[in-house]
Amino acid sequence: MKLIYNWLKDFVGIKTSPLELARRLTMAGLEVKAVEEKDGDFVFEIEITSNRPDWLSVIGVAREAAAVTNSKLKIKNEKIKIQKPKENQGVKITIEDKKDCSLYTAKIIKGVSVGVSPEWLKKRLELIGCRSINNVVDITNYAMFTYGEPLHAFDADKLASYEIEVRRANAGEQLVTIDGVFRKLDKDILVIADKQQAQAVAGIMGGKSTEVTASTRNILLEAAIFDPVLIRRARRKLGMQTDSSYRFERGIDTQTALVSSDYAARMIIQLAGGNLICAREKGATKILKKTISVNYSSVQRILGASISPALMKNILAALGFGVKGSKTCFSVTVPSARQDVEEEVDLIEEIARIFGIENIPAEVPYVKPQPRARTRFDIISKTKNILIAQGVNEAITYTLIDRKLLELFSWPVDEAARLVNPLSEEQEFLRPCIIASLVRAAALNLKQKQPLVELFEVGKIYTAGNNEELVLGLVLCGKKSVVTQEAVVNIKEGFLRLKGIIQNLFSGLGIAQPEILFNETTAGFKVKLNSKEIGQFVKVSSAALEAMDVKYQEVYAAQISLEEILMQALPEKKFVPVSIFPAICRDISFVVQENISFKQITDLAHKTAGLLLEQVKITDIYRGKQIPQGCKNFTVSCVYRLPNRTLTDLEVSPIHACVVQALTQALSAQIR
Fold first, then answer.
1. Residue 103 has pLDDT above 90, yes or no
2. What percentage of the chain has pLDDT greater than the value 90?
3. Rounded distance between C-alpha atoms, residue 152 and residue 243, angstroms
4. DSSP E strand stretches across 464-611
5. Which among 36, 35, 17, 39 is positioned nearest to 120, based on CA atoms?
6. Which end of the chain is more exposed for a tag (fewer CB within 10 A), N or C?
7. β pairing state of 429-430 and 417-418
């Protein structure tokens, strides 16, 4: 939101420079992103948090400025005089549902002269990016930016009658809004109507037919409180975003609506002439204010700072809170504009903001280390650390995805959990698999010319029926260069890299190695643990990659259920010292059929050699002219060692001979 320094000074007697004021507001939580000197004034660009709709106005920021600079507010809420209505000039207001519209006010001002706004008014609006239209419309906008309450002026003579209805639109009802766009309305959209038809989309935009123009002489000035949820849904359905809807969606204070309406009416009479003939209100004009007790001791204990009771009261009073004190505590009345303040700790936060976080002394917290049982969180942290140690980067993606992504990965849309009221089309479904989100993240990295992308994510997936599951997702693509003594070798990512990462993970968590089996259906691999399928490896389809603008790249992904892994992970690992006794190594070179895996070889060797065989390492795989078709040559190194003494050749030789014999008999290996 943009705001002008001199506009702010109309409501608070600040003498602080614009830059210093920006710094103090930012330190108090109201972030001023930029200050620009423009046309003899200073324009503040302010970031408003969603829980502070009261800051969407000059008055709201003025309260903060008064508190942080210890200045006085200059806000006067003057009553406006109303002429006695003449024959049948009153307004009748009908609200169909008070939940949709808790308050509607209408003022009839007759005899206005619509024209160009005065220069000071045009300048202020244009400095904050609002186009000047005419004096009446400019005043409604000016009042909105001043108080935060959106107003609308109808050309009263173009209404069918002075009988205003606030109701849901009828099926098939239509309206051309001020921007000249034809809108189709339905029962989910609230409208302001006369006796004949809808004349405005409530809280969003007025109708073209009742727009205030140069020929307008009589106006109906509207100020209302609408249901924020209803306005947001209507705005999304119509594909519109206006300053008015932005404020209504975040909630408007009832008292602000009343004051703002009077303020605008007074300005119209001053700048455009005319007389206020009638003013009507329908709905709740008063709301019950909250009262919260605050203990002095609670403030000291929570903030860890010594703040005098008088200063606490002054801070809250400067922010618009009503304060009554006693010896040990004080009672605080929350203004209706502060919808975010619910309990004592909220008020303590207000005191801390204005007192200054930088003025609270920093202390090292007292921590008493205590041993504790290994938790699920610890195992997840360890899982992440093992993956990071392998060079894989952690990614965190949204759990909400769009329909297009589901279709790209051939996931049945009907089986995905859809949000009843999604915020946008991009966040319509809870993700049923984690791979899709990760592949999109990888595609973004590839577009940034990253040669190698290795990402993982630990997160939940959701399926229809309120089922959710914690899973590990992995995605690999690109190639990496490995420098050897002979040359630089480029290695492309693939299933083998995925397999290595998963095997290292299981090893690090102390879990038995999983079975990784070819999946004919997906041309990928299944991952099984104790005969139960817990995940899969896939190669992402070229169609999905092209849709993400990824070309000439192969992307491999995996999704593994973490629930099964977390149950089997060993809580602790014991340190095993490195043996001080030397090992005896014996190499074997042999030819086997292509379908024989290295795991089969190592399992057979360990089973045959028993405890003497410490490790079987693969040193070479060869396929060439000297090797028969359909076969491969393995060269493996068997490492024999005992932890408590040195082995001799007499002990190792017969054992190693048994290993060789087992390979030739069980796997039909031909020793070379």
1. yes
2. 58
3. 12
4. 467-483, 488-492, 515-519, 524-529, 532-539, 555-561, 584-593
5. 39
6. C
7. antiparallel
